[in-house]
Every structure is written in C-alpha cells, then in structure tokens.
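Reviewers asked in the last cycle whether our approach scales beyond single polypeptides. To address this, we selected a multi-component target totalling 889 residues and predicted its structure end to end. The input consisted of the following lines:
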Amino acid sequence: MTKKNDEHMNIVIVGHVDHGKSTIIGRLLADTNSLPEGKLEQIKQLCRNNAKPFEYAFLLDALKDERSQGITIDTARSFFKTEKRKYIIIDAPGHIEFLKNMITGASRADAALLVIDAAEGVKENSRRHGYMLSMLGIKQVCVLVNKMDNVKYKKEVYDRIVNEYNEFLNKIGIQSQGFIPVSGMEGDNIAKRSINMPWYEEDTVLTMLDKFTASKPLDSLPFRMPVQDVYKFTNDADDRRIIAGTVESGTINNGDEVVFYPSGKKTHVNKIEPMSEYDTATKASAGYATGFTMTEQIYVKRGELCFKSDQTPPLMGKHMKVSLFWLGKKPMVKDKRYFLKTGTMKAECYLENILSVIDASTLIKTEKDQIDKHDVADCIISTSKLCAFDNSALLSSTGRFVIVDEYEISGGGIFTETVDNLHRYEKAKVMLREGKWEHGYVTLPERNERFSQNAALIILTGTKDTNKKLFAKALERSLFDEGKNVYYLGIGSVIYGLNADINPPGEKENRSGENIRRLAEAANILLDTGLILIVTASDLTKYDVETIKLVTKNDNTLVFWLGDECTTDIECDMVLPNDEDAIEIIRKKVEQVAVR
Amino acid sequence: MDHLDRLEARSIHIIREAYNSFKNLCMLWSIGKDSTVLLCLARKAFYGHVPFPLVHIDTHYKIPQMIEYRDRLAIEWNLDMIYGENRKALEEKRTFPDGNCTRLECCRNLKTEALAHTLAGDWPRYRMDHNLKKYVIDKNTEPYTGVIVGVRADEEGSRSKERYFSPRDTHNDWDISDQPPEFWGQYKTDFAPGTHLRIHPLLDWTELDIWEYIKRENVPVVSLYFDQGEKKRYRSLGCYPCTKPVDSEAKNLDDIIEELRTGKFANIAERSGRDQDKEDGGGLEELRKNGYM
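The resulting structure, written as structure tokens, was:
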C-alpha cells in the first residue's frame, strides 16, 4: 500500500555565510504552499511589531538568537513535498564558527544544495563546505548561484562562477549534478522558471530536487553489525540472551554463522528475536535495529563488530591511517589521550603521526605538528586496544569514526588504509629480545638429543567450562610416565604472578593481549630448555595463537579445541569432544611431533 | 525499508544507546501520542521490557481520562511508573486556573519546576507499587542523568534545532548556540559530572508519521484524540484549562491520518490548540531552555 509520494529524502543546503541559504528555503516553502497556515503571516506580523523588513529567511530562523544576529546558528529542518516525494530540507549554517553544526546537518542528508552568492563569488566556506560534503560521503551536489538579481541576471557572472567552482569540485573528486542561477529574494528558478534569465533553460531548484536519486540500500554488501548491547532481562521469566545492534550493511538470517571482531568469537544465529507480537522477521538487513539469540552461548560484549564467517572480514588493527576533520576548540596534538568511537566501540587513542594538514578552503597542504580547528588532516591514529573497522572506500558505514576529546566529539574521519600493524607491538618486542638474548653454549638440538624428544608446544583451549586443565594434567602425567620431559602451565598461573602488575586484584581475568604475550614469553623460555610444554587458556582466537607462535618462534606447535563446537575464529589442528577419549587422541598426536 | 521502518530503526538505536550510556536513565511519558509511541519503541527495543522508569509530571489539571489511561497501561505492561508534582504551587494556588498567574507562568510552575525537581530527586517522587496497585513515595532520590523525551522537530521552531542527545548543564540550561556535533550515528554520551542529557529519539518524526505508526503497530492511545460524537477531538493533549479540542469528525485512526494527509489539518500547526504558545514571541524557547518539553 505504498502511496505515490511515500519516498522521503533529506536535503542539506550549505554555503558561505550570507549567501542566502535560508532565504532560498523560505522561498521554496512559500512558493510551494508548504508552510503551516498562518506561519507566513505570523512572521510578517512579528517583523512589523519589531519594525524590521520581512525576509523569507525569518521563516526558518525561528529562534530569537538568530533573528537578532541574522545568521543561522544551527540546522533547522523544514518539511516539504512534491508529487514525487517528501523532503526534509536541512538548513546548515554558513558561518565558520558553526562548522560542527553544518556537519551535523549535512551528515543526515542524501544530497546537497550548495549556495554561492553571484556578487560575492566563490568564498572560503563555499569551498570548505564542498570539501566537507565529500568527506561526509555525499555524492549528489547541485550548486545554486544565488542573488542573480544583484548582478542584473548577467550570464557572464554566472558562467564565471560555474567555471571557477567546477574546477574546485574536480580537484576534490566531486561531480556536481549541475548549476542553477537563482534569486531567493525574487523567486527566480526556485519553484518556477525565471523570466529574468531567458538564457537559462534547465532545471529549477524544485525540478532538480526530484532528479536526485534515493540512497541505495546497503543490503547487498557484506554484513556488519556493531554489537550495541547484550540483553538479558530476567523479569517475567525471560531467559533469552540477545545480541542487539543496528545492521550497518548486508543481511543476516536465522542459522548464519557469525564472527565477532576483535574478540574472534564465533557462533550461529539461533533466531532473530521478534521485537513485538506482530514481528515475524527471520532476517535483518541494512538499516534495521535488530537482535538475535545464539546457538552457542559465547561471551561477547558491546563494541565488537559482528560479520558473517563466509564474507570478507573487517580489518583489525591498532594503528590506522585516516583522514580526519577537526572541530575541537583545542587543537589535536600528539601525546594527548583521546577516545576513538567507531560503530559502538570506544577505544583510548593517540595521534601518532601527522602526514599532512590540508586547508579545506584552499586545498593547500602544510606541515604542522598539530591539527587546528577546521583543519583536515591525513594522519596515523593508534589505539590502546585492537579495533575492528573497514576501509571506508569499500564499506563507508563501518569505515568512519569520531574522536572524543574529554567529553566532546571533536573530530570525525574515515579509515583510508591500514598500516601493516597487526602484532606490531609484539613483533617489536621479539626483535629487541632476539637482539639482546644471551645464548649459552648448549643448543636446543643438543638438548633435544639428550632428552630424546623434540621441544613442542601443546595448546589446549575451548570455552571456560571444558576440562582443559584436567586433561592437560592427565596428559602431562602420561607423557612423564613415558619418560618425557614435560611441563604443564595454565594461563592462570601466569596472570597472578608474572603478570600481576597488569592484572589489578578484583578485576575480571583478562585472557587476551598482554597476558597472552607474557604467557608466550614464558613458554618461549621453557621451550628453549627442551621441554614439551602444555599450555591451557580459554577461548583463544586466531589472533592469540598468532601472537603465541610469533613470540615462541616454535614450529612444533599443536592447537586443540575442546568441545563440540569451536566458538572462536581460531585455526586449530583438531576439535575434540570434551571427554576422556580426548586425552588419548592428543597423546598420540603429541607423540608424532615430539618423539624422536 | 519504508519510511516508518527507517524512523523506527533510528529511534530504537538511539533508545538503546541511551540505555547503555546512562546509569540513571528515565523516560518522560506525557500520556500523549508521541511519548506513547516512544514507550512502544522502548518495548520493541528491549523485547517487551522497559528497563527504566517512566516519569510523568502531574499538574493535577490533566484531563482525567489521561490519568486513568496512564495507570491502566502501567499495570498492564508492568511499567516502572513514577510521577512528580509541584505540591507547593498547587497549595498556594499559583496557577492560571486559580487566576493568579499567566498561562506561561503556570506552565513554569506546574511543569518546568516540577520536572526539574522530580528529575533532580529533591522533591518527592511517587512510584507505582505493583503489589499494592497504587503510588507510594519512591525511596530512590538519585538524580536522573539521562532523560528520554518525545519531542519532534516539526512541532515548532526551536525544536527543529534539537540534537538527538542534547546536553543540559547544572541549571538545566540548553545552550543553543553551542550544541555538540552529531553525525554518523555517534552521539554525545560522555558528559561532565553535574550535567545531564536529554535524549530525543523522535526528532525526525512528523505528526503524520506518529499516527501512521500508531495504526501500524496498534499503539493504544487515549480516546480523547477521537471525535466521540460531539464533532470535536483533541489534537494535542495537555491541561484542560489551556488545551482546546479542535473541530473534527475524525473518529478513528484512518480518519485522523486522512485529515493530516490531505484534509483540513494538512497545513495547520498541531499546537494551534495550545494557548500558551501564543502568549509571546520566543516564550516556548525560553521554557525549553529551562527544561519544558
């Protein structure tokens, strides 16, 4: 039962201060009879009361502050419709001080009208706003050359501006949908064709709006859903554990296998949960707020990025190359702690390196050691924890972020490419260690020969509730009784001793990151003594195993997952049922690699 | 995904963000159609649960059906229902119906002031005891740091400039000229101690959207919105001395939707039946700065 004009579109109107954005909208609303009854008369009366000449802009600048200053401070929204669809026109302020408001308004838009004053020509914010539109990913832009009445409707003036601004747009990679000469004050080419400019025969603003195309749905892209929360409401005997979030791209169905980054946890969608008694959805696609229960009860939390295991995974890293714009009152500087928010994830971050700073209004690149308000910069951001994200050129909705300085969102940006950065920290530590390591005169091959075994690392992992420790101890006993030189080390033994400084008492046990690296360092020493080492830790991921292998530099590593279903993205040698037969299977496997 | 789907999804995302970000969160429920839609969105967001209290400011001049309806749904949906009031102003008769102040001053006393103190927790809050099925003094006096409110951008000028997450300082002040940027679904959820945030999940909805959604989702609304045979109905609900019904024969949801789409109200502002709006040029904005919804 879709009605003819049920399509909706958000349009933002931007441009330099005083170039007449609000007037154009006011005129558009008035000339299409889109104003609430009495509004025009009400504002006219207000102007008479205050002995001010009436302006169409007053219709929008409904706030007192603005009426007195005559400029748009914030973004006002107006509703308006044509035969084709309904529009929300977002009026963005042109004053440089309010760039953050312009961005707020423009980020909600599907398309933009950019206004340039015919008499004043292309100004600083004409260009800056154009640049911001490109950063915000708004591809449809139409340029209105306004106040043509002030230049006697001359074609030369219009042509000059078209040429100059087109050149700028080309440089930043935007292709405009066209230019229109208009007068908001007089109504030329707004809702009806101007009689004052017979030399222009193309679209009016009204017909141009209907030519914009609605944003394409992102359903066919890879599935991405930042985990917004995990709900378990216990009242009314509800025992569902629901992973909730809004789908950014792609589609998810009941039964799909999904992975969460950065934790690397893996499970299947049991059921897309109905949100009301009338909800019968069995899938959720881009744009929908949804939630699902899982077949395996893995532990995931807000901030993780959920994707489907058979699709391109997101990127992960702690050092990202980005383009960002800065809105903060204080400049963005190195060595200061900020927070990066992407999707639902929030991580401590630092400005690691500035590659270049661009003046968005002149496109001139400069070298600076800080990013000032309204600058646009290419730089490297480092985060304290692993982040999952996408390259914005491929998946824009999960390829962008904001920076929070103290309590305020102070900048925004897009991930442009990844710096080769996985395990960068671990690699650096290993390199240093290798350089400084004092080797004795006894070598590992000699030890291997003496003990009649090959030093080997046996990793037993699985969910928390499996018998990893029990099996590891049984395995240790049986190999020892066979005369092997074997040792069992659980991660818990490291967390409270070797790692005590990074695990404050009372805090939840952390089985990732630095704890894994230190476990691996301890393993590295033990392996160098020629031992067969059995290690246990819960829920190890692909990333964790990579860390362990990198740090121990050991080719003789076996990884076993205990339990029926592997619930992380780990690549293991075997998935074994969590019963006593497992010990025997593991023992045989170990003998294959460790016995000489 | 149609228009209502899109509005619903964004609102639910915002409500879920709010729930995650604030320990002391509440939702204002005016009993009107907008905040009732908001309540239904919350029930969808949390799968039938509403995991925060609903706060109603009772001016004691509300149309009686509104209060009946409030308490009926509170019990039926097992809501954590709380109301607050300005007892002192009522006792001292500092109200417009008592003839002692203007409509705007009355709003300020019975709504704005009552709201500020109820949110701050320094005036009594009355909480529905679901065992006794009546209101008792709420022992919790902690201030709410996040308040979900059902305002819409199309209601009147000043509301069109609101953010989804809008900070208020210690004096409840709304600094319109210095609002936080808000883009890419990232909101201001970090805030300094002493400040609080208003959260506006319905900002992008229009009056027509609300009615179409009420129809689509079977949202129960108070019968005052429909013509009961007297060729009059309320288009917007408030206190009876200041809210007049409009002339309309809309008896059901379809009639109302038709009336707003193409009929007599297509171009008449919703709050035209609210007398306090007409008293002064920037009056509502002043009230909003001070916390009026």
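Chain B has a mean pLDDT of 85. We regard this as preliminary and will revisit it once experimental data from Aim 1 are available.
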